[in-house]
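>> received
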Amino acid sequence: MSTRSLCDLGLAELSEWCVAQGERPFRAKQIRRWLFGKRVSNVDAMHDVPAALRATLAEQLPLFSGRLVDHRIASDRTEKLLVACADGEQVECVLMREPKRRTVCISTQVGCGMGCVFCASGMLGLKRNLSGGEILEQILRLDRLLEKDERITNVVAMGIGEPLANLAALLPVLETLNDPGGLGLGARRITISTVGLPEKIRELAQLNKAFNLAVSLHAPNDALRNELVPVNKGIGLGAILASADEYFDRTGRRVTYEYVLLAGRNDQRQHAQQLAALLKPRIAHVNLIPMNGVIGLPFEAPGEPRTREFAGILERAGVPVTVRKRKGADVDAACGQLRLQHLQPGA
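>> returned
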């Protein structure tokens, strides 16, 4: 069985593969229509593709290279998958349902090397980058959980890993999402999260694509951020904000700043005031995220009154703010938790 899958090949590569099998290049578009548009679960279902080509396809380029390890469905209909890659490494992806949205959250690395002290994703360190095919497979697996009249409306690269540290693999996937022959998803419906890697933010800006950028800030000053996000020691808030400003100038897209609220650590009035001072001069939006508890980590979410007070300080300063709704709490849908449970039973 090949470790490559259909997800690994773009249209041009698939066309070349078809020609190498003695077929016309148009077969590639036929195959991709089944893969993206018709949500088939196996190659045999592609009935307008010649049987011999289907047999070769199944042998050399199956739909997916990974296997499903766990599938959990929450009371709010959030669905979380744990997928084992061909080498056995595991990644998570999540489908979130809202009245007018169907959002999928994907991972870009196996583990994470950014070292955020409150995050389950990095507790076992960084193993490796995911390939483009392994990233796309997550989206297509989640797409197949939808009803016939449902469609993915938004994609967020906010799962396990630092997306901008694997930009070379992520960008072709985003192009496929954007492609009318893929999922036909506009760039404005795709969000890329980052801990804040200035050069990579600038690289992303140079593409002149209207992707949404979400910067995981989590602290309003370098001293506190160095404690919570150790990679900040070699970067600094000033450099991150400057690159995010450049992203806005280049793309015209408002930058979102994500801020996980940790009781007693970064949720005090002075922290809200400092954050407001940083962001008031900017076209920015703050997404407050009450901490999802992780066994083995000494952090918890503040109470609702403290969260409302923090948000209120930002609002009164003129900084747009929302508090993220918890989705899938009863199936450990927060980033990295399900993988950690499987790799460390009892966690």
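>> The longest helix spans residues 237-251.
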